[in-house]
Structures are given as C-alpha cells and as structure tokens.
Amino acid sequence: MSSPPHKLQKLAPYILHYWGGIPGRGEYVRLAFEYAGVSYTDSNDSAKLLKTLRSTSPSHFAPPMLELPNGKILSQTPAILNYLAPKLGLAGEKGNLLKNAVEDDDEREEAEFERSIVNQLVLTALDLCVEAHDSHHPIASSLYYEDQKQEALRRAEDFLKLRIPKYLAHFEETLRKNKVSHSHLVGKTTTTADLVLFHVVDGLLYAFPRRMGALDKGGKYKRVLKLHEKIMAEGGIKEYVESGRRRKFGVGLFRHYPELDGEDEDTIEPEKE
Amino acid sequence: MSSPPHKLQKLAPYILHYWGGIPGRGEYVRLAFEYAGVSYTDSNDSAKLLKTLRSTSPSHFAPPMLELPNGKILSQTPAILNYLAPKLGLAGEKGNLLKNAVEDDDEREEAEFERSIVNQLVLTALDLCVEAHDSHHPIASSLYYEDQKQEALRRAEDFLKLRIPKYLAHFEETLRKNKVSHSHLVGKTTTTADLVLFHVVDGLLYAFPRRMGALDKGGKYKRVLKLHEKIMAEGGIKEYVESGRRRKFGVGLFRHYPELDGEDEDTIEPEKE
C-alpha cells in the first residue's frame, strides 16, 4: 500500500521507504524533497520494506531507505541527506556546485568543505532528535514507555535541564556568527541543516511545550525559534504543511507525555542568566 | 600540551583536536590516518580545544574536531570521515575517484553512491558505539556511572540480549552478501566502514568479554570477528597498535563493568538458533 502520489509528482524518480503513520526519521528526507519541489513517492508498504531491508547488498539496518532512480538503495538519514543535498540545491551555495563535476581543485575543496559543514550540522541536530527519543525510551526500544517510565522521568529531567539548552545554544551561536545571514545555519541559502533543525525544534515544541515555553522567555534562542517559524512559511514547506500530507506527531520519536515535560512538579527552573 | 609527533609525521597538515587519555570518538579519525599512512598531529590541549569549539563559525558542538591544512575546522565524526574518505583512499574503489574531479556523469554518480554506502555503514557502526556508551550511561552523561547503575543494569541487559546480536547480524549479512570479498564491507578495499567496525568490535570485546565470547561460539558472526582480526594485523594499523601510541580503553565510550556483562548472574542465555 503506497500513499497516493501528490501534486508535485509527475514521474517517480525517488521512492522513500518508511513505516506508515508517523513522521519518524523519514520526515527529514521528505522535507528535503518538499522544499526542493522534487517529486518522490512515499512508500509505506511494510512487507516490501522488510524484504528490501534484507534482500539488498549491503543490508540496511533500518528505514528510512531511499530508492534511487537507478534502483539502488541507500539508508541512514544523514547519509541520504548528504547524498541528496547537492542534487536538491541544499548543500550551501558552494556545496551545491558538487551536483556537477568541479574541475578546479580549490573550488572543489571549498565545495566539499561546505557540504561537510552542512552534514556536520545535520548530524548534531539529529543527535538532539535521538536524545529526545531516548528521553521517553531510556532503557530499550523493545519495551513500552510505561515499562520504563521511572527511568524516563529521570532521563527527561536531565534532557530538559541540560541537554536541550546546550543544543539550542549551539545552534543559536551558529546563527549569530553567520556573517552573511542570521537566519541560515550556513551561508545565505536554505540547507538540509536548516530543514532538520526546523523539524527537531518542531518536535521539541510538540513534546515539551512547557519547557520550550520557559526557554523562549529570555530570548536566548530567538534566532533558532525564528528559523523554525521562517521555514514553516517557506515555499515548498508551507504548501506541504497546508496540504495535510505532513504526518502528525504522536507515538514516534517526539512524544508528549506531560509528566516528562515537568508539568506535574516544578522541578525545572526557567532559564535565568 | 600536544602529544609528541609520531614516526609517520613530517609536516603537520591535519590536526586532530580531542580530549587526552581516552580513545573516544577521536580514535575513528586516528585509525583512518594511521591506516592510510597520512601524517596528523594529535592535539590534546583542552584549553585550546574549548576555545576552538566556540570561537569558530559555525560553532562545534563537541570534539573530535579536525583542523584542515587550510586552517578550517570540521567536527562530527561521521562528517570528518566522509570528508576524508576519498582523500585517504578509504571510500571504496569507485568512491575514491572523488579525490579528483570526475567529469563523466554516470561515473560520478557511481562514485557518490559508493561513498554514500560507506558513509551509511559508518553511521550504523557508530550508532552501535553510542548504544554501547548508553549501556553504562542510560540517564545522563553529566552523572557518574554509580549514580545510574540500576538503570544501566536494565539497559545493558537489553543491549546484550537484543541489540548487539542485531547489529552483528547486520554486518555479518553485509559481509556475506559482498560478492567480491567476504572480508570487506564494501567492494574489495578497506574503507572507513571497516575501520570503524573494527574499533567498535574491539570496544565490545573489551567491555563485554563474556557476552561476546558467548556470541562467538555458534560461528554466527564469524566474518565480523574475522574482519576485526584482519584489520588488527593490517599495514598501518599493526604498526600503530604495536607502537603503544594507541590509547587503551578505560572510562570512555566502552567500559568494562563486570556486572553489566552479566557475570554476576546468568540471565543472558548463549545464542542457540
């Protein structure tokens, strides 16, 4: 069962294989295609997915898997995004040159470096996503939340108090130091890093509204939150969100358990400093 | 305080900034240089490291950071390895072509894909490394092991029982399916994926000797364990290990706590199947 082709689609050059129902890690790949306006098919056929995972060489550990126009398959979200970035114009102005052959050595080096910096920022934003997941599943993905709730309460406390602010400060600093644009992580064009950060912030706002609200008060992370708003309204993403095709958060990576957001007790102080 | 230059070194084109004392994530970058025989300086100057983390644009979230010959800095282990791979001849036979400009579109696409597959496998092996770390620190990196030991016992049980076998099976399958070589993850040349898997397996053997011994008995993961032995004896790595420069495991990512390895109680059954 594949999802119906959407309006951007003419042919189906890329097929994204992912579980149905949740945004999950597949969403990071979807956002890249949606922003770029490049057609893709969103396949949620679990049986085909499991078969593909194991039948190809090399094997794939987990979805998302991207089936390329030539039938080859690539998995691991950061690997997919780094592969696609220059093709979709999301690797930075210089990084995007790598869509074609870059003959000049210095120019190619600059392009490879910018593409790598985008990759670096994508990886850090995805690390934050993993920590958000582990805040409700600190013991095992194979167990229900209810079976690790006590540990989750402890882990979420540290995540909210120390980790979220540390990551947000890192991205705020990166935006602040970008001399050509304070609303882009790299250069002055939207990259996969901006799109991934957008979705992670969106997930944190969904999962931890109380804590994110408290962190927002001092204006310490204003550029990060502004980037989130900006991407939400940008061409490609705006249409995607309004189309209703964008999957809602629920019981995936980002989950809203009020008790983990510190709503039950006021142990987490708002940022002072 | 920098570590003394080692025998491979003539100039110092690359500088690896990392914490002193532990192999850590810096080791994955060291192994790439050591295997390739390319000189690098291993800088453990904490003060300089912290300053560099924040003074550059973009900011870097954490070490390792690689300072390039041109002075630019890149962080995030998988981003560093993907950047270096074609330059060091560790991106697969086709992937390595990307060291230079590849004019033919089809050839460049094949090269980009192979480099991406290497990246994919690196990322999965590093995910296993993160889970190994979280088995002793399931609640917070900011707390001591002793302060999260109860939770660690629970997480390690799942990690040993389900996660290690799942990852090892994935890599075993990848080696088995490689038509041109059962001792390389991609093609028939050593890539960053082989080197990362080597170190992760080395870390697991150090941290969980009892469990890894039990898993070894059925021969289910023989190709993975053979790859580990092969890399240990390979040119570049052999000299590195014998030189004594390779840092020992201790209280870093991979830790040997007998109680987490199930030595106290025999709850974890050996593999049957």
From TrEMBL, chains A, B:
One of its GO terms (molecular function) is glutathione transferase activity. CDD domains: GST_C_Sigma_like. Keywords: Transferase. Signal peptide: none annotated. Residues 13-92 form the GST N-terminal domain. Pfam families: GST_C_3. The keyword Transferase applies. InterPro entries: Glutathione-S-Trfase_C-like, Glutathione-S-Trfase_C_sf, Glutathione_S-Trfase_N, GST_C, GST_superfamily, Thioredoxin-like_sf. GO terms for biological process: glutathione metabolic process. The keyword Cell membrane does not apply. Residues 111-260 form the GST C-terminal domain. This is Glutathione S-transferase C-terminal-like protein.
